[in-house]
Every structure is written in structure tokens, then in C-alpha cells.
Specification:
heterotrimer, A mainly alpha (282), B alpha+beta (367), C mainly alpha (277), B: 367 residues, alpha+beta, OB fold (Dihydrolipoamide Acetyltransferase, E2P), 2 domains, 20 strands, elongated, C: mainly alpha, MetI-like fold, 13 helices, 75% helix
Chain lengths: 282, 367, 277
């Protein structure tokens, strides 16, 4: 239907840009991961597998990776536990207030990550709002130290950030369920609880998968929350990468970890997509 | 199951014979708008009852109240003598075939059909047996493993039917299930549904706006109009003895004649004939097929008149002719198509075919 | 549909759960705002001494205002780039068939779900190998690239709702493809484009993960704040955060209203997330 000039105009510029600023950089990342750094802090363009060997040889990398995955897993689970009932309530129980409540959920989503992480820092600190509140009402005598500079703080903050992210696709998939299916299920003798288990939940799985993937992948690669709130025990894999590009100056090693993360993330995305397809109206 | 021919029931009468479902003075409004006004209706065991009405008549609301998806503002519903209305849908021995079938997309055909049985936690072997039986009954055995998205609308409709019937409800509700089908498939399904109902013996309450459909399938028709029952009777009864002008016009074609009775004679434009009615204004319904060409020296009590042919509408097996009398009265009559008369016609009808009906306009004024 | 009216076990805990979640979501924001007016600074309970001092200090803080200007500059440029490439990309995905279309679609949407560190680092390497010094320009390139996905998704959704018949009518009446595009397609996409611009602008103003690696001499606002956070907490930060929140709120509510005008129910944020998966 469209002229060749038109087709060229709409496909070539974006393709070029994407090739230059996405594909090429990823390719560079790949290359860097095989290079090394000289003692004089120059990048040596000779090809070697040393970086990858290093990752498996030295414990700290795998340990941090697993700790990061465990943090990401907790964030995902808590976000789902908070987000799913919220989405269910808005979709089925909120009636006229649905629109307003929906806006209420997406507002924190778009308010600065930094602002929200910082806010938690002021709340959780030993001189912070929560601790002084607890002491003020005499629930505790001294500040609770585990609140801040710990994995707990990171999980809490990231759960706060990503709950709206899990809410959105779950809400969308719940909204797509035709209401007469609920009535049909009741008609056939299933109570609301049975209806949820047999009809609503299976049909909402694609949304759950999408939200969970989002939360997990983004939590895994997060470096800001650990820097602000994680303390030494809350360091995540991205923090290691950041230091390798900063003070510890080993770009190739950092690139190796980053590329590994890229592969891991893309793998998770593919897996999630396959599962979602399997579960969409099965 | 023996065919049920029931005597005409005036709207609002509660039958004295025990019935399956008893709807008593049910009313429902959505906000300020009344949708059902004091409906009372009894449904007998094994009968095929059609609730017929235009959109907005309240027929779907009535069905949903019986099914438990809406609750009435006032009134009661009893099944087998016990109150049905406080129960949620999943505790009623009533099943519904929804208008757009509402098949579960994530389950296969046989999983759909067996849903109610699984919820009731029946033993596995029984579920399998009953599902197979239900699928055979609707001729969908070959599609047992298919997903709803892969079968046609008519096939989905059969699955919805099987899914409802497999639970052996005491009453089956059908919410315009044939409206999404094309005309030929629709006619076929009408016949199949009717024979299915006979075979299974369960009472069916069928909602539709299509009066032909209602006539074909029902043991009784309940005509609903603006939230009130206009007439409840068998198809034959409702056709040949409509109670109101609305009924006469809604079901089939008719001529409405206004007249004045005085001393046992009614005068209607230039026509007059003896009637056994009190003095005063009267409205008659006269079906077009009851106006015939005058046969010359025929029975003395037929009403004769002349009219000039104005238009002919071809209907295939019959034609609808419109003829105008000298005084301006226009009447429709139905003839066989091969009849070629034209110009001035000699026509007659039997006085007994002019049925007095209640005027429906006063009902409109009550709003 | 509501939960059935005659249901005996109509869930009572759901509204409570919802309230708790909303409380959790808004607690930090409310705390921030309240304490931005707190005389004794950050932390401590209960807040006392209502004051506007922190806001006053903010207004005399040159570094902050410089960073705000920088951020605005970056944001406008990012919007321009993202739209200039995102609109054609959306059109291409909606209408054209070309080899590698599936790969293209995934690539365009990838930055949406990829952790910012990967996007940032890979671009850093590009600039380094290309001999480009880090500055606001590199940040603009980074934001633009990352946010093309937002533009594409929004405009694509708008295209889906577009009535093809209008374009066909235009062609039928003698306009060629370009004229049809300018006179019919683009005006119909107006709301989507404005919504996308608003969203991209807001996201760019708040962006920190990618900017972290591409920063040169000049700071954007988030990075300026970040720098101060490393040095210690001051109540000024509460004040600027509150202001950021108010602007974000205005932007998002406006965006929502625009989208609601374009269609009945708003699922765009959800589409963004779905598209990314």
C-alpha cells in the first residue's frame, strides 16, 4: 500500500539509530569482555578468556550474583503479594472508584526513583522517622540498626518501587477477563473462592508473569538502592560492576559481568515470553 | 414427556396446580428506572416457557433474577415450595446458557462441560460418563479435546448447552442463545432445542425478542412489555386470542378496528355487525388471513364490504394486500400468491374473527 | 462486575489490603513532604517547627538551578530525538514488513526492561571507542536511545486505534502518501504524541541509572542530588524532592487525562510493561 520512499523513510532512520546506539554498544560490550587492562590502566585489545575465568574462580562474584538473585526474588514475591490483591480489588471490587484508584497507583510509578529511595533512607535511619517514632511511643528503647544499610532496606525499597510495576500487567489481564465467565462459573456451582482459583487465576497468569519478570530483572540489575541503603552486606552484582568502571578500574572484567547479565536477562525474557504464550487463553 | 397444552392464564393469576418455579410479585428498578413491575408467573414441570419482549422490556433482567445474578427489590421466588431468592447462583439448582456462551477459554470442550461436576466433587468415573453422555446429546463428541477458540459459534452454543444440562438442573435458563447465529442455523437449532427439551424433560425458560422463534418452540409464551406481563398463554392461544392491541400487533400482523357498540350492534366505520358486548367504545383485532374474497351467496353472518386494492407485498407463499374502503379505512388481507385479482375487491370476514382486545395506549399513559 | 451481591463470603479483607498497600506506596512521599517543612531537619519524630527555610535555601542554591537547567535542556532534546525516531518506528512496526522486523521490535523495546546499567555501560564504551568526550550531549544520546521505546509504544497504541478508513478515504480523494500522513495520520496521533512527549520528558528529568555513566562536567538534577546524598543528608534535599514530586504529579495526571480523552480505559502504562515483556 505504501510507496517505497515512505517505507524507507519510516524504517531506515530508526533502524540506523538502533544499530548504532544499541547493537553496536552491545557488540562492544561483548568485545570488551574478552580484552584486558594493563598495569598502566590502558585497555589492551588482545583476546582472552581470562575475565570469564576470573568470574568463576573468585568466589565473590558468584556469591554476589546469588545474593542479588535472592534479593531480586524476594522483591518479586513481595511485589506480587502486594500487587495482585490490589489489582483484583480494583478490577472486581472498586466499582466507580476504579479510575481514581488506578491513577493513585500509577502516580508513585512515575515519581523519581531517587526521591523515593532517598525517602526510605530518611525513614529507616537510626535517627530517622521510624526509629524515633518507635522510641517516642516506647515500643523500643534504642534504634533498630538492621533497618538501614542492610539487605532488608534494599528489599523494602525495591519492593516499594516495583509493586506498581507488578500491579499494571496483572490489572490489565484481570480487566480482560469477560465478566460473564465469572457469572458462568457461579451458575455452575462454584463459590467466589473456587471461581477465583479455577477461572480468574489461570486467566491472569500472563499478567503475573509479565509483572514478575519486570520486577525480577530490574531488581537484579539495580545498583542505586544498594549504594544508598544496602551497606556492606547489601552489595549487589551491579555495584561490583560500577566499582570496576570506577575506582577498581577494570573495564574488561566489568564488561564481562555486564555481558553475562545481559545474556541472563535476555534468557529470562525469552523464557517468560514462552511461558506467557503457553498460558494466554491456554 | 407428554406435550403440555395449558389453558390460557390471565396475567397475575397464581396457579393452583403445584408448579416448579413460582415468581411472586417481583419488582426491580435500576436507579430511578423501574424495569420489572410486580411480575407474578408460575412455571410448570417440564414446560418450555418463552419470555418474549422487545429490548428494554425487562426480560433479561427477569432471567438474571431467576439465575441469581441480580436480586429483586421486592417479591419472592420459590422453587419446590422453598425460597430461592436469598440463595447465591452457586447454590441454586438452576443453570444458564449465556447469550455469548461464556465458555472458559483456558479449558477444553470436555473440561468446560465437566466444570460443574468437578466443582461438586463428584467421582471421576461419574464425571467422565456424564460428560460423554452430554456431549453425545449435543453431537459434539468429536470436539471433546478442542479449545473454544477453535470451534464455531453454533458449536460453542451446543457446548454451552451441554455444560448446563450435564448438571441436571431443575430449571434451565437460556438468554437469547440463538441471536448470534445466522438465520438457517438458527432455524435448525430451534428445532433441536425443542426436541432436546422434550428428551430431557427439564423446564426451559427461554428469553428472546423474536416472536417467530417463540411461536415455534414454546409450550407457553409470556409476553413482557415495559416490565409487565401483557399475556401468558400457549402460542396458539396468544395468536388467535390476543388480550391486548399490543399483543395482537407484536405477534403476527393484524388490523385494528375501532368501533362503537350500541344495543348489540357495533359500528366500525361503514361496517357493522351484531356483537354480544356492552355499549361503549371497543377495539377489535382482525388478522389479515381472516379477510377473504367474498364467495358470492355465502353464510349470512359474514360481514361484506368493498375495497380498492392499493398495494401488494410479495411474501413468497402468500401475499399481503392492502385495500382501501370508500370511507378511507385501510385493511390488510393475506392471500395465496397466485391470486391475480386487482382493482375493486369484494371482501368478507366472519364476526367471530374480530377479537375484542384491550387498548394498550392507556398503559403508556400510566408512566 | 462487582462481586456477587448475594455472596456470603464477599471478601472483606481486600479493601483493607488495598488501603495498606496505598499507605505503603505513599508513606515515603508523605514523609518527605512533611519533613521538608520540618524545622529540625530530616528525621526525628514528631515533626515540629514548621518552616520554609529549606525552600529558601534551595532558591539560593546555584548548583541546583544549574543542574535544573541542564536537565531541562537534556529532557527537551531527548523528547525530540525519541519522537523523531519513535514515530517512524511505530509506523514501521504497524504497517511495513521488512526483514528483521521481529528483531527490530525487540531491540527497540529492550531498553525499557533492561537494567539501566547495561544500557549506560554499553553506550559508555561506544563513546570511549568513538573518542567522544562525556558531556550533556552523551547524556542526551543515552536518554534519547532509551526512551525511543516509550515513544514507539505510545504511538503504536495510538495507531491501533486509528481508523484506517480515514487514510484510505484521503488516498481515494487524491492525496498521496506524504500528504495523507501530514493531513490525516499525524493529526489523529496528536494525543498519543503529546502523551508520549509528556512521559518522555518526565522520565528524562528523573533519569539517573543511564546518566550515571554518561555524565561529563555538567550535572543533571538527579545526579546533583545524588552527589549531595553521598556527602550527607540535608533537609534541602527534602525540599527539592517535594518540588520534583509536585511536578511529576502534575505531569502524570495531565498525561492520564490526555490518554483518557483518547480512549475509554487507560491501560497504556500496562501496555508499556507488556510490550517490554
Amino acid at each position: 500500500m505504501f510507496s517505497r520512499a515512505y517505507r524507507a523513510a519510516i524504517t531506515i532512520p530508526p533502524l540506523l539509530w538502533v544499530a548504532l546506539f544499541l547493537l553496536l554498544p552491545y557488540a562492544l560490550l561483548f568485545c570488551y569482555s574478552f580484552w584486558s587492562v594493563s598495569p598502566a590502566q590502558a585497555i589492551v585489545h588482545s583476546w582472552t578468556l581470562n575475565n570469564y575465568r576470573e568470574l568463576f574462580r573468585v568466589n565473590v562474584y558468584l556469591q554476589t550474583l546469588f545474593r542479588s538473585m535472592w534479593i531480586a526474588a524476594r522483591v518479586t514475591i513481595f511485589s506480587l503479594l502486594l500487587g495482585y490483591p490490589l489489582a483484583y480489588y480494583l478490577s472486581f471490587g472498586a466499582g466507580a472508584r476504579k479510575d481514581f484508584l488506578y491513577q493513585l497507583v500509577i502516580i508513585p510509578l512515575w515519581v523519581s526513583y531517587l526521591v523515593r529511595a532517598y525517602a526510605w533512607k530518611t525513614i529507616l535511619g537510626s535517627g530517622g522517622v521510624l526509629n524515633t517514632l518507635l522510641q517516642y511511643v516506647h515500643l523500643t528503647n534504642h534504634p533498630l540498626n538492621f533497618l538501614l544499610y542492610s539487605p532488608f532496606a534494599v528489599v523494602l525499597t525495591l519492593t516499594h518501587i516495583y509493586t506498581p510495576f507488578t500491579f499494571l500487567p496483572i490489572f490489565a489481564s484481570l480487566e480482560h477477563i469477560p465478566r460473564n465467565l465469572i457469572e458462568a462459573s457461579h451458575d455452575l456451582g462454584a463459590s467466589p473462592l473456587q471461581t477465583f482459583w479455577r477461572v480468574v487465576l489461570p486467566l491472569s497468569i500472563p499478567g503475573v508473569l509479565a509483572g514478575a519478570t519486570f520486577a525480577f530483572v530490574l531488581s537484579l540489575g539495580d545498583f542505586l538502592a544498594p549504594l544508598l541503603l544496602g551497606g556492606p552486606s547489601g552489595i549487589m552484582i551491579s555495584n561490583i560492576v560500577v566499582s570496576l568502571f570506577g575506582a577498581a578500574y577494570n573495564w574488561p572484567l566489568g564488561a564481562a559481568i555486564s555481558f553475562g547479565m545481559l545474556v541472563l536477562v535476555i534468557g529470562l525474557l525469552f523464557l517468560s515470553e514462552r511461558l506467557e504464550k503457553k498460558w494466554s487463553f491456554r | 414427556m407428554a406435550s403440555v397444552t395449558q389453558p390460557e392464564i390471565a396475567p397475575g393469576t397464581v396457579r393452583t396446580v403445584p408448579s416448579l418455579l413460582s415468581i411472586h410479585e417481583v419488582a426491580k428498578s435500576f436507579g430511578p428506572t423501574p424495569v420489572l413491575r410486580n411480575i407474578s408467573l408460575d412455571i410448570a414441570e417440564g414446560e418450555f416457557l418463552t419470555v418474549l419482549g422487545e429490548s428494554g422490556s425487562g426480560k433479561t433482567t427477569l432471567l438474571r433474577i431467576i439465575g441469581g445474578f441480580e436480586s429483586a427489590d421486592s417479591g419472592q421466588i420459590l422453587m419446590g415450595g422453598e425460597r430461592l431468592d436469598p440463595l447465591p447462583p452457586y447454590r441454586r439448582r438452576v443453570n444458564t446458557v449465556f447469550q455469548h456462551y461464556a465458555l472458559f477459554p483456558h479449558l477444553t470442550v470436555e473440561e468446560n462441560v465437566g466444570y460443574g461436576l468437578r466443582v461438586a466433587k463428584l467421582p471421576k468415573e461419574e464425571i467422565i460418563a456424564r460428560v460423554q453422555q452430554a456431549l453425545a446429546m449435543v453431537k459434539m463428541t468429536a470436539y471433546a479435546g478442542s479449545k473454544p477458540s477453535k470451534i464455531s459459534g453454533g458449536q460453542q452454543q451446543r457446548v454451552a448447552l451441554a455444560r448446563a444440562l450435564v448438571n441436571r438442573p431443575r430449571l434451565l435458563l437460556l438468554d437469547e442463545p440463538l441471536s448470534a447465529l445466522d438465520a438457517n442455523l438458527r432455524r435448525q437449532m430451534q428445532v433441536e432445542l425443542k426436541s432436546l427439551q422434550r428428551e430431557v424433560g427439564i423446564s426451559f425458560v427461554f428469553v428472546t425478542h423474536d416472536q417467530d422463534e417463540a411461536m415455534v418452540m414454546s409450550d407457553r409464551i409470556a409476553l413482557l412489555r415495559m416490565g409487565e406481563l401483557e399475556q401468558v398463554a400457549s402460542p396458539r392461544e396468544i395468536y388467535s386470542r390476543p388480550a391486548t392491541a399490543y399483543t395482537a400487533q407484536f405477534i403476527g400482523h393484524t388490523n385494528l378496528l375501532r368501533g362503537e357498540v350500541k344495543g348489540g350492534i357495533v359500528r366500525c366505520h361503514s361496517l357493522s355487525w351484531p356483537v354480544d358486548l356492552p355499549d361503549g367504545p371497543v377495539l377489535f383485532s382482525l388478522r389479515p388471513e381472516n379477510i377473504r374474497f367474498a364467495a358470492g351467496a355465502s353464510g349470512s353472518n359474514a360481514v361484506h364490504f368493498r375495497a380498492r386494492l392499493r398495494t401488494r407485498i410479495f411474501h413468497g407463499a402468500t401475499e399481503l394486500l392492502q385495500a382501501e374502503c370508500a370511507d378511507g379505512l385501510v385493511l390488510s388481507l393475506r392471500t395465496a400468491s397466485y391470486d391475480n385479482r386487482h382493482g375493486d375487491l369484494d371482501l368478507e370476514f366472519a364476526p367471530a374473527d374480530a377479537i375484542p382486545v384491550r387498548d394498550s395506549d392507556d398503559l403508556k399513559k400510566r408512566n | 462486575m462487582e462481586l456477587p451481591m448475594s455472596s456470603p463470603n464477599r471478601s472483606h479483607w481486600l479493601p483493607w489490603h488495598a488501603t495498606l498497600v496505598f499507605g505503603f506506596l505513599y508513606l515515603p512521599i508523605v514523609t518527605l513532604i512533611v519533613y521538608s517543612f520540618n524545622g529540625s531537619g530530616v528525621g526525628g519524630f514528631p515533626p515540629r517547627d514548621f518552616t520554609l527555610d529549606w525552600y529558601r535555601e534551595l532558591f539560593t542554591d546555584d548548583a541546583i538551578w544549574n543542574s535544573v537547567l541542564n536537565s531541562l535542556f537534556v529532557a527537551f532534546a531527548a523528547v525530540a530525538i525519541a519522537l523523531a525516531l519513535g514515530i517512524p518506528a511505530a509506523l514501521a512496526l504497524d504497517r511495513a514488513n521488512f526483514p528483521g522486523k521481529a528483531l527490530f521490535r525487540r531491540l527497540v523495546l529492550l531498553p525499557l526492561i533492561l537494567p539501566g546499567i547495561i544500557t549506560g555501560l554499553s553506550l559508555l564504551m561506544l563513546f570511549r571507542e568513538g573518542g567522544m568526550k562525556l558531556s550533556l550531549v552523551t547524556i542526551i544520546l543515552g536518554h534519547g536511545t532509551a526512551l525511543i521505546s516509550v515513544a514507539t509504544t505510545e504511538v503504536f497504541a495510538g495507531l491501533q486505534k486509528l481508523d484506517r478508513a480515514q487514510e484510505e478515504a484521503s488516498l481515494d480523494l487524491g492525496a498521496n502518501y506524504w500528504q495523507t500522513f501530514w493531513r490525516v495520520t499525524l493529526p489523529n496521533l496528536r494525543l498519543s504524541i503529546i502523551g508520549a512527549a509528556l512521559l518522555i520528558f518526565t522520565l528524562s528529568m528523573d533519569e539517573i541509572a543511564v546518566s550515571f555513566f554518561l555524565i561529563g562536567r555538567d550535572n543533571t538534577l538527579p545526579l546533583e542530588i545524588w552527589g549531595r546524598l553521598r556527602r550527607g543528608i540535608t533537609p534541602e534535599i527534602n525540599a527539592i524532592s517535594t518540588i520534583i514530586f509536585v511536578f511529576s504529579l502534575a505531569a502524570i495526571v495531565t498525561w492520564y487525562r490526555l490518554r483518557a480523552r483518547a480512549e475509554g480505559r487507560v491501560e497504556i502504562a500496562a501496555e508499556l510493561v507488556e510490550a517490554a515483556s
